[in-house]
Amino acid sequence: MTRSVRVLRRAQLDLVEIQAYVARDRPEAAETLIEGLVSRLRSLERLSDRGAVPRDSRLRRAGYRYLSHSDYLIFYKTLARQVRVYRVLHGAQQYAHLL
Fold it and tell me: Which among 65, 75, 63, 4 is positioned nearest to 37, based on CA atoms?
């Protein structure tokens, strides 16, 4: 089943912040990273159930899944006709309280 992917405002801001941070030292790497993250986001249209289920029980009960790309985690929920992307965070962050 194909679902639309909706990247919520906070996740959009995460992508902007990631690009700005990486671009400070490596502009080309920042563009490549963002392209990779966006590609992973688009892949959720057809393969929304492939993401891992978080270990954190609160996030699991809330229905979150995540995909990884490079050092980043894309947190999302699959709904009937849509995938909603909530955050894109560095994997080293303490992220449970950010969702």
Answer: 75
